[in-house]
Design a protein that fits this description.
The protein has four helices and nine strands; from the N terminus they run E-E-H-H-E-E-E-E-H-E-H-E-E. Strands 1, 2, 3, 4, 5, 6, 7, 8 and 9 form a nine-stranded mixed beta sheet that branches. Helices cover about 25% and strands about 35% of the residues. The chain is globular and about 40 Å long. It has helices spanning about 20-25, 45-60, 125-135, 150-160; strands at about 5, 10, 70-75, 80-90, 95, 105-115, 140-150, 165-175, 180-190. By secondary structure, the chain is α+β, with helices and mostly antiparallel strands.
Amino acid sequence: MMKIEFDNIILRDMIGSDIEDYVRWFTVEREWENWDAPWENEDTCEETERKGWTEYYESVKDRPDDAHRRKFEIEWNGRHVGWVSSYCIDENYEWVGKIKDGQTVYRAIGIDICEPDLCGNGIGTKALRAFINYYFENGVNELYTQTWSGNVRMLRCAEKLGFVECNRDVGTREVDGQKYDGLTFKIKMITHR
């Protein structure tokens, strides 16, 4: 199992007991969804989530330690509290599901702290910094992160880490009937501290 320790935070591979945390986070304790793309929230049930997360765990549990990771679980003080993950975006800063031959894509990273009592105390910033370091140490020279203008927690986190806004889509995100801007930020290895 791959594990990265950084400033009292552990980024690690998923373990079987994480499945029940995901079931709880996607069915009961859903406050975190109000910050991570709330326009995408969907109702689900425990059975569906348990099946999906069990299948995901089975697909990743035997990866060798030297295999590249796109996702890590966040552990703080022995407690599974969320995850960091990455995805590809194109030159228009749009999500890319399947990469076509010759297509230029860029790596974007994100974070979710799902335990409501732990939001706002720096765990997310530390975990995202560790994830950035992981990518920079593995040959990625620039990273992106995306959020919306109403997510003040993520905006503060991005600023602390040295991300710089590189794209703003005005009024493209709607949350609770209010329009917000879609934001993309960039950080380069040479500016990272």
